[in-house]
Inverse folding.
């Protein structure tokens, strides 16, 4: 009688793999800083600058390829305070839901008048709204008001400009003049790290 | 014949083969698969959600706007120390030295043109001052290119200056010359 072949099912020791997996999970959990959902993706120019952007207390001004300006103020509670102050400034009453929504909003490019109806939308609906950018013309410079109010709440705010590489300089110049009007003379330009070797002979 | 082809074998007292003497396994056999699944799920999530390349920044310090009533003492700079770089709208740097009888040169940005030129001039001219003059329609990227080249060349004295009429005329003349050339 033939003996039944003993199938000792191959025993794979999975413990090292599981150890590795958990090690990596722990590593990523501790090192991660979450990406903020970005309103629009911008192709920033590359440079060899190696200063990192501070993670806190930063206002990012994004300039889209079309020259529209988007504002991103760091800090949920700062944003909630900020919209209250802007509401007072422009005589627009924002309700609690709208304030909460603004606290969770990343960058935006809406004029103050359009903001309350924009905040009433769900985050999904907001994505399909074509935002016109924050008005920056000399007749009504809302961007200047946003910056003044934000800096009143937190004087430690740093300004960073994240402009698309193909934006004409006149658009950036308008933004820089707005900053200079408020005596913001020190600001950062956000760039991509360049891979090329720094100093060729 | 009851043969097991699957790799995972859990103890099942109702399975006749498990009652077999050859297959005695310790009765406590924890199924770790769900835990491992979770671990990998979390791993994938954090790997995708994490931002690896933190954006880099270059810091710019601009002079404050002069107040109208303020008598601003503008320090004139020596002509021999001045270098003007006009950011052309053709991805080329147009530069000249001094003010009187300027000789316009057109070179590309970066390691192939502007940077070695700046390094050379910086070693030749002490206290070189670079005036960056962007055109309204020059690309923002070129501004960053020039600032980058200045930093790498170790030049700390530079300023963003508005284009003057003289500069514009010079720029136009240089461009027509370039177009009519070979």
């Amino acid at each position: 009688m033939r003996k039944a072949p003993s199938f000792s099912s191959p025993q794979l020791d999975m413990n090292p793999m599981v150890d590795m997996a958990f090690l990596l999970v722990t590593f990523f959990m501790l090192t991660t800083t979450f990406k903020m959902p970005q309103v629009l993706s911008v192709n920033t120019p590359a440079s060899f600058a190696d200063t990192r952007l501070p993670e806190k207390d930063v206002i990012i001004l994004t300039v889209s390829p079309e020259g529209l300006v988007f504002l991103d103020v760091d800090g949920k509670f700062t944003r909630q305070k900020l919209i209250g102050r802007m509401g007072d400034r422009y005589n627009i009453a924002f309700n609690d839901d709208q304030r909460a929504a603004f606290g969770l909003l990343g960058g935006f490019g809406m004029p103050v008048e359009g903001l309350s109806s924009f905040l009433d939308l769900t985050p999904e609906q907001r994505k399909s709204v074509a935002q016109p950018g924050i008005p920056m013309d000399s007749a009504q410079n809302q961007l200047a008001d946003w910056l003044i109010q934000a800096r009143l709440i937190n004087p430690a705010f740093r300004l960073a400009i994240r402009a698309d590489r193909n934006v004409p300089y006149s658009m950036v110049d308008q933004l820089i003049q707005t900053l200079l009007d408020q005596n913001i003379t020190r600001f950062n330009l956000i760039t991509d790290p360049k891979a090329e070797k720094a100093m060729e002979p | 014949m009851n043969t097991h082809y699957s790799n995972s074998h859990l103890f099942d007292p109702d399975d006749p083969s498990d009652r077999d003497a050859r297959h005695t396994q310790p009765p406590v056999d924890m199924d770790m698969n769900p835990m491992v699944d979770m671990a990998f799920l979390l791993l994938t999530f954090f790997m995708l959600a994490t931002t690896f390349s933190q954006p880099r920044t270059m810091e710019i310090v601009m002079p404050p706007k002069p107040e109208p009533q303020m008598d601003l003492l503008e320090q004139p700079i020596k002509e021999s120390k001045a270098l003007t770089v006009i950011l052309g709208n053709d991805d080329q740097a147009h530069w000249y030295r001094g003010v009187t009888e300027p000789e316009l040169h057109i070179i590309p940005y970066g390691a192939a043109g502007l940077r070695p030129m700046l390094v050379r001039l910086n070693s030749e001219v002490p206290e070189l001052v670079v005036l960056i003059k962007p055109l309204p329609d020059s690309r923002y990227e070129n501004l960053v290119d020039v600032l980058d080249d200045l930093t790498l060349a170790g030049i700390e004295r530079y300023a963003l200056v508005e284009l003057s009429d003289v500069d514009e005329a010079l720029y136009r003349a240089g461009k027509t010359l370039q177009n009519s050339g070979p």
In short: The mean pLDDT of chain B is 76.
